[in-house]
Design brief:
By secondary structure, the chain is mostly helical. 50% of the residues lie in helices and 6% in strands.
């Protein structure tokens, strides 16, 4: 099947009521469904070498559609790949390595003083941050490949050229209107809700305890396969053609690991755990078709709503009431009671979510600073309060209060927490 054939197959599923989902899920990866062009002036040395190696050793590509390799899903071969000179670094080899946004890193270095940092480590931090920042939602590396998490680093606004839109037989003006409407009406609300829930989880002692128990009891499996077992970002119509059924593995280590990961994710309403301490909350699923394989999880962790196309849509208030009654039952899981109380429809103080959005980013980067640059930031905590206050659009006093709250919930040494 040719590239045009793939596009044609995908865009047959495109209807105007779901144009955003099609663009976000299908069109963007298909920009480089074949081998992407490599700009050797900007690409890292290792990405160029990897690309050249792939051209001669196509067998290294995991994802294929018929006889065509799909390089867009092989993140280790993108230009943001981990440079080969850092593969054996003690912070990286066998570990998850998270990067800082370049603007945050430079603000910290300027405020703290570059002379206080280890020169070689800072050089690596800067280069890896620059490479990761080439794409929104890239947050770090594992086994030389990219870690993606839009909760920590939200994706930038969708943007497509007229040629790309027209290649799918769509009208550019209509698509841009749909994108603006989607962003204003749906995108920001869903993004903030997901980020707030992540922040609540990562400052919740019970979640962290169960998280650490799961990962520490499956250390060998994580070293082999990582924490992320989610393939839902690959369209199902293609996934069944390019990947084997994960359950076909006869390795008992795999089966036990997958079962417990699924149980953990269902219990805490997660779509994935892309890395230690990076949960991806479940998102609404509003497509016309839902795979049978996930129905059981949907019943356990949310609700399944069926509205025949012969029934008129209820008013906004009617629909809201129906959904709220169905989702927030009296038998709601006790471990989620606090969060359910925050988001219930009759709680008009929805600004309760804002502190958790702020704490999500704060706790993530605060831990990285203490784990990798503890000597540099020693006795410079007040300056860090100022930096994070500017980044998170609040006051240094609020940042200090947030950190005090996290410490009260998680303990004095929360910055040093490590599942392994």
């Amino acid at each position: 099947m040719t590239k045009d054939g793939v596009k044609k197959t995908l865009t047959e599923k495109c209807k105007w009521h779901n144009v955003i989902g099609v663009l976000a899920l299908y069109l963007d990866p298909l920009r480089e469904v074949m081998m992407p062009e490599i700009d050797e002036s900007s690409a890292s040395f290792s990405s160029i070498q990897n690309a050249k190696q792939i051209n001669s050793e196509g067998s290294e590509v995991r994802f294929r559609l018929e006889d065509l390799p799909i390089y867009a899903w092989e993140t280790k071969y993108h230009n943001s790949s981990l440079p080969i000179e850092y593969h054996s670094h003690s912070f990286i080899s066998g570990n998850y390595f998270f990067t800082f946004p370049s603007e945050l890193l430079e603000a910290i270095v300027e405020k703290i003083g570059e002379e206080r940092f280890d020169g070689d480590l800072l050089k690596m931090e800067r280069e890896l941050s620059r490479l990761c920042n080439k794409s929104s939602s890239h947050v770090g590396y594992w086994q030389e490949g990219i870690i993606t998490c839009s909760e920590i680093n939200p994706q930038s606004e969708l943007s497509f050229t007229d040629d790309e839109i027209q290649s799918c037989n769509l009208n550019p003006l209509a698509v841009r209107h749909a994108l603006r409407k989607y962003k204003d009406r749906d995108s920001k609300f869903l993004e903030n809700s997901s980020r707030a829930y992540s922040g609540w989880l990562l400052t919740n002692p019970q979640f962290l305890s169960e998280h650490d128990t799961l990962l520490s009891s499956h250390h060998e499996a994580i070293q082999r396969w990582g924490t992320s077992l989610n393939l839902s970002r690959i369209p199902e119509m293609i996934r069944t053609q390019i990947l084997p059924d994960p359950k076909s593995s006869e390795d008992p280590l795999w089966s036990e690991y997958v079962d417990q990961c699924k149980e953990f994710c269902t219990r805490w309403r997660l779509d994935d755990l892309v890395a230690p301490y990076l949960p991806v909350p479940s998102k609404p699923k509003m497509a016309g078709q839902i795979p049978e394989t996930i129905l059981e999880n949907l019943f356990q962790s949310g609700g399944l709503f069926y509205l025949p196309d012969t029934i008129p849509l209820p008013s906004r208030d009617q629909l809201r009431s129906l959904l709220d009654d169905a989702l927030h039952r009296e038998d709601t899981s006790e471990h989620l009671a606090e969060w359910q109380n925050i988001i219930r429809s009759d709680n008009f103080a929805k600004n309760q979510m804002n502190p958790f959005i702020r704490k999500l980013e704060l706790q993530h980067y605060w831990k990285l600073l203490h784990q990798r640059h503890s000597s540099a930031i020693n006795r410079r905590i007040g300056k860090l309060h100022e930096i994070f206050a500017e980044r998170l659009e609040t006051t240094p006093k609020q940042i200090k209060n947030d950190l005090t709250s996290i410490k009260k919930q998680l303990g004095a040494d929360w910055e040093k927490r490590d599942w392994s």
